[in-house]
Amino acid sequence: MADSSMTDTANAQIGNGDSAESLSDEVKKKAEELKEKANEYFKNGDYSQAITYYSQAIEQNPYVAAYYGNRSFAHIKTESFGYALSDASKALQLDKNYIKAYYRRASANMALGKFKVALKDFESVVKVRPNDKDARAKFNECKKIVQMQAFQKAIAVEENHKSVADSIDLASMSIEDDYQGPRFEDGGVTLKFVTDLMKTFKEQKKLHRKYAYQILVEIKNFFIKQPSLVDITVPKGEKFTVCGDIHGQFYDLLNIFELNGLPSESNPYLFNGDFVDRGSFSVECVVVLFCFKLLYPNHFFMARGNHESVTMNQMYGFEGEVKSKYTSQMADLFTEIFNWLPLAHCINNKILVMHGGLFKEDNVTLDDLRKIDRNRQPPESGLMCELLWSDPQPMPGRAESKRGVGTMFGPDITSKFLQRNNLEYIIRSHEVKPEGYEVMHDGKCITVFSAPNYCDTMGNQGAFLTITGDDLTPKFTSFDSVPHPNVKPMAYANSLFGLYAIMDDNAFLNKEISVNHLVPAQGRLWNNKDIPGKVKDRHQLPILCITQSCARGCLGLKGKDRY
Amino acid sequence: MASDDGVILTNDDAAQCKRYAVEKKYWSDPYISLLTSRSSAKHAPEISRGYYARVTAMRKLLHKFLMLTDRNCQVVNLGAGSDTNYWLLKELDLFPKSFIEMDFKSVTARKVAQIKRHEVLLQTIASEDEDIRLSKSEIHGSDYHLVDADLSILSQVEKKLHESGIDKNLPTLFMAECVLVYIDNLKTKELLKWIADQFPVAMFINYEQVNMADRFGDIMIENLKSRDCFLAGVEHCKSLETQKQRFLDVGWEGADAMEMLQIYKCLPQVDVHRIERLEFMDEKELLEQLLSHYCLAWAWKDPNNLGIAALDVT
Is pTM, for the whole model, over 0.90? Predict the structure, then answer.
């Protein structure tokens, strides 16, 4: 049982204000002996006795940092973290170079869940002992936790947060007279609007933000009403097409519509997630897809992919692209919309379609999926996470996901799941495949991936599959990539190249240029004094700048115009 | 020349990618921000990881060579660009008798300007009792030489090395990081042969593309072509074999090569795990493709059995 004197707070006076000098050698010796005794008890695992004797040592000589340090350690062992904290602090008051005490305090704080505070102490140790591997390991461990906490906080749903959708004032946005882009007819999206829009985007022109916002607000309201698992009925003789990842490859998306026809009531589509990120035309892709959804709500479907999430969008370009083409507020609105995207679709009660794959647990039912509360960022584990992140594997059973999130699942898992839910097969996406698709698990697990020459580097084909209402056997079409304006989405090493774009005149003129964005154009080296404050003359172009994840306004493109 | 500009840009690019990775704490390098501007773009994690592997592997071999020769050697960095190894070696107290950097004039001129602007860079080069000679595009210090030369013109290379006081009798390490691939095959052959002929004890470390005869390679070549970057030397990048053979063909005693994918797995795994936790990478495919299309090749001449032949990157 702890001595009552240990209720001192960390800031309390140590001793009676005098210093160690005031003590006689005899007293000091006695204290040392008590400490030695305490150490013995400690070594033998008798922590409460150790505490008793450290306390007695302190009573004799309250000026020795090590007594407090050791007692702190004993408190940690008995999980009295508050006392451990206070003792460690006292030790440091006496000797701020007492490294072990920093450790003790950090450990106590960690045990109390105060990781940020603990991190500071670990940092102090690492600074003083840069070669101490253990110190660094602890520091890194703690840092990892702090970062994870920050991540958890970021993905948690905020209760009283006012949504962007609710705070947009569409009425106050006006359309300039010189706006040449597509306009709504009858106040909304029509087939003519969408076809005009695709043409506009193909020519790298812009959709007015008022229309963009309107589309987004409407689509959000639509998705809110959808269940997490959407049931689709494909009537006998009718066709149905499933596409996989698009990843911002707008020109390849247009090509899919060329090859397979525009979406319509007689030509329904399901896009299985990952519409954005990596490719540089993510905005165009997702807006067009949303338009088709609004146009044909019962014949056009979209599922959430792992890239329809904040962390992915921040890292892989979508957020930057939205901020540069529109506004930061719109990026937030996309986040709200993505939170409401359905997680899976079930076709004719026979085919389950999700972006990632199956689950860590057995006995998952379709009802379990319907019940998922999806209006949130994807969690780090659980059904919602697995739906978006898992991958099939050839060998039976399950394994740790190669991605670090979700799970790997074998043919036996697929089989059992299908049986349990009376299904024939699953379709998923999420993995790039050389021919755009792969049939695994004896036909029970199909991957379809629709972004050809992924990131302009992989050289793969894309694919889509079609079924009909009475014949669920998938028919695959593989296709190659088509050319697109000169915006390279990925880096190569030197060729790990950075990302390049060529500025669109219109986007560029009369805009302030940031110095960082000016990189020597071919054949001409620019130095600082050449950099214009405002670009007045298109002959001051071209300017190669870094794109895709570029947070500033550099994503208009005009492929062939190189000066 | 238009194609030189394209190649020159690759330095800016690589340097910015390295700086980005340094800022994300993939490795430490306090000098890179002094020689390279920051790009405002985010780079995908596979890029930073790729650079991490590249920088770590090259550094490892460089350090091993220095330790083996007990610093009694020279280092020649061909196409050095914005490289910071000289200053990093000084920090570690592991610098050679002479460190020579060679690149296009516009590149060296920019580096000279940057070195002049930053006391900490200049100080390292200028020791107290010796003068350093600075021109617009060159620096000659007591143990550091920055010279401009077109690597495809052997006479220029020869001349500048001579002006830098190179001692052919000292063990010499030549480094090239994504350089040879931009030079015409015949010229590179000439250069490698000349080095083998002139330097009795030498090592050459070459980082560049490999396995380029596949679809991924084709696309890379196309992509780079559209940026005026011609991989003139890509013939040697067909396989690890061709990368090794190019040295053996011109008189180097021995050669070895490893794909970056394999090297990545051989790097100290504790640190690899650390960097893998810096940024979450959504899928491995892209990194694996990148890493299997780059390699580190090294060749040696070690007649006195110093142990150069036994150096490797694992």
Answer: no
